[in-house]
Amino acid sequence: MGGGCGISVHGSHRVVTETTQLAMPECRIGLFPDIGASYFLARCPGEIGLYLGLTGARIVGADAIYLGLADYYIPNKRLTEIIPTLADGEAVSAALGALATPSGAAPLSMLREDIDAVFALDNVHDIIRALESYPDAWARQAYSDIKAACPLSLELTFRSIREARTKTLRECLVSDFRIALRLMQRDDYFEGVRARIIDKDNRPRWSHSSVQDVPQEEVDACFAPLGPSELQFQPG
């Protein structure tokens, strides 16, 4: 979850099992899906990546394969065979491919059409309104999750994922670094951690009461270049 996805999803050989769960729940603690998550969420089929980023919904291994977030579905009981096979000199792709099995139907694939219809809307406010009137269980859960999230985080996540569709991974990481530093200067992240993780009262007092109250200039400021503090990459 969260940073774990940011590290593993960018890997070259990504393995999931029948017990795997993935999620990017940062909006619930006043943060946003960072460390390159906007890059891979923007490349999920349709609008599912935006749905995952805004709601923090958990997905299973079959979903990860369907969304292109994982490469191999290997049963838990066969995981212990991976290291001995590699130790014998087998190429990584061949070793994992020999152990992999079909993942089965992805639950999210059956919701794709409905998710696309709602999350293709032009802004977070319209998405929330559409979910509020949607009759299905997935939409009711999505509505509840978004309403519990930090309004500024939702606005940042929406813009971040939408813009990432035309960005490289490096450009996404630069943008993520800018936003993360700006959020460290605000109260929402610290309040979210207090409410969800430390005190666990689940009553965060966000800086804004709704996404409609988030000024556009505040969002723009989080995306603005950092000048000398801009994220730098080592050559090579």
How much is the average pLDDT? Answer: 95
- What share of residues is helical? 40-55%
How many β strands by DSSP?
4
CATH architecture assignment name:
Alpha-Beta Complex
Low-confidence residue ranges:
none
> What is the count of structural domains?
1
The first-level CATH class is given as: Alpha Beta
Biggest pleated-sheet summary: 2 strands, parallel
CATH superfamily grouping: 2-enoyl-CoA Hydratase, Chain A, domain 1
Which H/E pattern describes the elements? HEEHHEHEHHHHHHHHH
Shape: globular
Descriptive account of the structure:
The chain has helices spanning 3-8, 37-42, 48-55, 61-67, 82-87, 92-99, 112-119, 124-133, 137-147, 151-164, 169-183, 188-198, 216-223; strands at residues 15-16, 21-22, 59-60, 72-73. The model has no long low-confidence stretch (mean pLDDT 95). It has one domain: 2-enoyl-CoA Hydratase, Chain A, domain 1. It has 236 residues and is mainly α. Helix 3 runs antiparallel to helix 10. Strands 1-4 form a two-stranded parallel sheet. A two-stranded antiparallel ribbon has the order 2-3. The radius of gyration is 19 Å and the shape is globular.
